[in-house]
Specification:
By secondary structure, this protein is of the alpha+beta class. Among the domains are: 57 residues, no CATH class; 144 residues, Rod shape-determining protein MreC, domain 1 (Thrombin, subunit H), CATH 2.40.10.340. It has 4 helices and 12 strands, in the order H-H-H-H-E-E-E-E-E-E-E-E-E-E-E-E. The strands form 2 sheets. Strands 1-2-5-4-3-12 form a 6-stranded antiparallel barrel. The radius of gyration is 51 Å and the shape is elongated.
Length: 327
């Protein structure tokens, strides 16, 4: 009986001690959230964190509440921003260099975009026909076959034009045929509408394939669409290459309709109209200027030098001396 009483007392003491330790641990966790109390634990926590190699500002409460993960994500985003800043500087430098090369080579690029912005008023979003109606027509400057864009990318092409409205066939329509190319791979194909958000690529080359996740752009072949308009991103599903349409990412209800590219076909030599160049009248030569008469030059007379004969040199006569002789 005595032994059983002692064992029960020991087990009770252990439970009390365990409860005190648990309560103290919970109190420490809660105390770290209070700034007045957490200041006492900062030096010790910093020392321990330096010893174990953990960051000093990561507490147990931060790990439990998810603050540590958010701070780590913020650091990763800051690193990405720095990388993107370097890429931006490189892109600006390359763009300036490309512009200089185009000027040197006299390269004819894409014509400038001049279009009309309109609001989408009606959307026909059926299983087969997908078109939209915009509230701008020929009176506002829209031309037949205009190309429609939004903030995301290519929307479609004008198939019906009125005075104050335009009907646009979307690229998601199954009747739409858009020549595209991969932005990175350069592979060319034809994108056909599949459903509301996707298109399917057909007429693929047998040798090369697209790169998963790359953007596809309009290639400009056929002359219906300009070159370089963003159509979407390509993904592979089974044996098909599908395109997630970019126009669905930014659907604000407005479209911009620009004129299609216009390239005049050269005429055969026999049909080239002869250009008659009028004769150019040559200017009559001006009469030669007569030389002005020479004015008489009056010179002052120069006095002639008077030459006088040189005088004879003076003769010096010596006085005669008497000659003393004999007697």
């Amino acid at each position: 009986m005595a032994r059983s009483g002692r064992s029960s007392q020991k087990s009770g003491a252990r439970r009390v001690t365990l409860g005190i330790l648990i309560f103290g641990a919970l109190a420490l966790i809660v105390a770290q959230s209070a700034p007045q109390i957490s200041n006492f634990f900062v030096p010790a926590r910093t020392t321990i964190s330096d010893r174990i190699g953990a960051p000093a500002d990561t507490s147990l409460w931060a790990q439990i509440s998810g603050q540590a993960g958010r701070e780590q994500r913020i650091k990763e985003l800051e690193n990405e921003v720095r990388d993107l800043a370097r890429y931006k500087a490189a892109a600006i430098s390359m763009a300036e260099r490309m512009e200089a090369y185009e000027n040197i080579l006299n390269l004819m690029g894409e014509p400038p975009e001049k279009g009309v912005t309109a609001r989408v008023t009606t959307v026909v979003d059926g299983p087969f026909a997908q078109t939209v109606l915009a509230n701008a027509g020929s009176l506002q400057g829209v031309v037949p076959g205009a190309v429609a864009l939004n903030e995301g990318g290519l929307v479609g092409r004008v198939i019906q034009l009125g005075d104050r409205s335009s009907r646009i066939l979307l690229v998601s329509n199954y009747q739409s045929q858009l020549p595209v190319l991969g932005e990175v791979s350069g592979v060319r194909a034809i994108m056909q509408g599949k459903d509301r958000d996707r298109g399917v690529l057909k007429d693929l080359p047998e040798v090369s394939d697209f790169i998963e996740g790359e953007r596809v752009l309009s290639s400009g072949e056929g002359g219906a669409f300009p070159r370089g308009l963003v159509a979407g991103t390509v993904t592979k599903q089974g044996s098909e290459w599908l395109v997630k349409l970019a126009m669905r990412d930014h659907a604000s209800g407005y479209v911009r309709m620009i004129a299609p590219p216009e390239i005049v076909e050269p005429l055969p030599e026999s049909e080239v109209p002869e250009v008659v160049v009028p004769p150019v009248e040559t200017a009559k030569p001006a009469p030669a200027a007569r030389p002005a008469p020479a004015r008489p030059v009056v010179t002052e007379p120069v006095a002639a030098a008077v030459v006088t004969p040189e005088a004879d040199p003076p003769v010096i006569r010596l006085p005669e001396t008497p000659v003393q002789g004999g007697e």
